[in-house]
Amino acid sequence: MSPTELPGPAIGLSAAVHVYLPKILGITVGLGGEAIVARSSASPPDATAGTPSTLRAVTETFKEISPQLSLNFGHGRGWSYLSAGIGQSKWSIVPEGNAPFPVDEDPIRTINYGGGARWFVKKHLAFSLDVRLYEIDAGSPAFGFPGSPRTLLLVIGAGISAK
To answer: What average pLDDT score do residues 86-111 get?
Structure first.
């Protein structure tokens, strides 16, 4: 694939569940897990002046699940946190009309870390912001081609939280 065929920003859904231990020295430790699913697609530009484009439409998907450990600072009306986890992801970029290769479904070890904040507007409902990096290990080689490179993926998420 050509780098110009790669899609840009994606839309996705992330969910996490944490259980919080008693506060020690102003820090609350959280144990839990997270899952994320995101998808992006790109279409080649329309042909201009009768010149057909050699670029293909592609779809990129990213799915990840991992246990997490978090350090939380604040109080019941709002807090900030740092968290990290090691899990597995499936990351693929497939041209339109093609079936994914088996290697596109292989789980890849992924380390995630980041932080964010929650601001409660009601007793059990909050606005949340999360910035996270995913270090995706190199993918498996297939059909005589090298696997996908080790990659660092940035995910910025905003949404609602419930407690």
So the answer is: 89
Distance CA 152, CA 137 (A): 9
What confidence tens digit (pLDDT) does each residue in 49-81 have? 555 667 888 999 999 999 999 999 998 788 999
Q: Specify the CATH number of the domain 3-42+55-162.
A: 2.40.160.20
* Class of residue 54 by CB neighbours under 10 A (exposed 0-12, middle 13-18, buried 19+): exposed
Q: DSSP class of residue 145?
A: B
Lowest mean pLDDT among 2-16, 26-40, 50-64, 67-81: 50-64
61 three-state secondary structure: strand
Residues in contact with 111: Cβ distance below 8 Å, sequence separation at least 6, in sequence order: 84, 85, 86, 134, 135
Of 66, 87, 88, 82, nearest in space to 30 by CA: 82
Residue 72's Cα: distance from chain center in Å? Answer: 21
pLDDT of residue 147: 77
**Both structure tokens of 134:** 């995913």
Q: Where are the domains of the chain?
A: 3-42+55-162
